[in-house]
């Protein structure tokens, strides 16, 4: 439940936070399952919209709208800030300073527009290959795996700052990272197969995931030598986009 509260705007009973010190070292193991549950409302909206013969692109945009409301645009905000900082920062310090600024610059706007467009079109394309229920399951599979990608990125880099959300949450424990990656892989694999995604397309999507997270992590390491809450959120957005595009092309 702490993972759901961390990754969304959904209300979680206070009893789950008794004696909570804010550290997420063990909690990250539940990120893939939390991602699956958080995406359930958007997946249902997409499936029901298709069942009522809505245009696939409209259904995709409705699903993204619901998802944004549930998460509070948490990961989109991270992507925009990371794009601004890493794209516009001349030095490590300058990049981190830009990422702390609440204003969104050109790099952030472009990143949001491109990823939202790619996700919407790719989600709509799923309707041409899968049933309504299959589309919902595919979205949930991608949600689980992209949250595992967040944990992977988080675990591979030290905090870029001494303060901030990521620094305060601590480093993921090795066992929790293994659990998150295993859970995300198994859940997404099973859901994609049940959804009716061809095996080759599923394997290519996993390959896209396995390439996107390390490449992004390497880039972040070179630019700011560590992770921030923004780069962790951006990992989810970039991974989700890569997975959706891979399925849209090869499913």
From TrEMBL:
Annotated InterPro entries: CobS
Molecular function as annotated in GO: adenosylcobinamide-GDP ribazoletransferase activity; cobalamin 5'-phosphate synthase activity
Subcellular location as annotated: Cell membrane
EC number, UniProt record: 2.7.8.26
Keyword Protein biosynthesis belongs to the record: no
Catalysed reaction equations from the record: alpha-ribazole 5'-phosphate + adenosylcob(III)inamide-GDP = adenosylcob(III)alamin 5'-phosphate + GMP + H(+); alpha-ribazole + adenosylcob(III)inamide-GDP = adenosylcob(III)alamin + GMP + H(+)
UniProt keyword Aminoacyl-tRNA synthetase, yes or no: no
Bilayer topology term: Multi-pass membrane protein
Pathways per UniProt: Cofactor biosynthesis; adenosylcobalamin biosynthesis; adenosylcobalamin from cob(II)yrinate a,c-diamide: step 7/7
Keyword annotations: Cell membrane, Cobalamin biosynthesis, Magnesium, Membrane, Transferase, Transmembrane, Transmembrane helix
PANTHER family: ADENOSYLCOBINAMIDE-GDP RIBAZOLETRANSFERASE
Family per record: Belongs to the CobS family.
Function: Joins adenosylcobinamide-GDP and alpha-ribazole to generate adenosylcobalamin (Ado-cobalamin). Also synthesizes adenosylcobalamin 5'-phosphate from adenosylcobinamide-GDP and alpha-ribazole 5'-phosphate.
Protein name: Adenosylcobinamide-GDP ribazoletransferase
Species: Ferranicluibacter rubi
Phylogenetic lineage: Bacteria, Pseudomonadati, Pseudomonadota, Alphaproteobacteria, Hyphomicrobiales
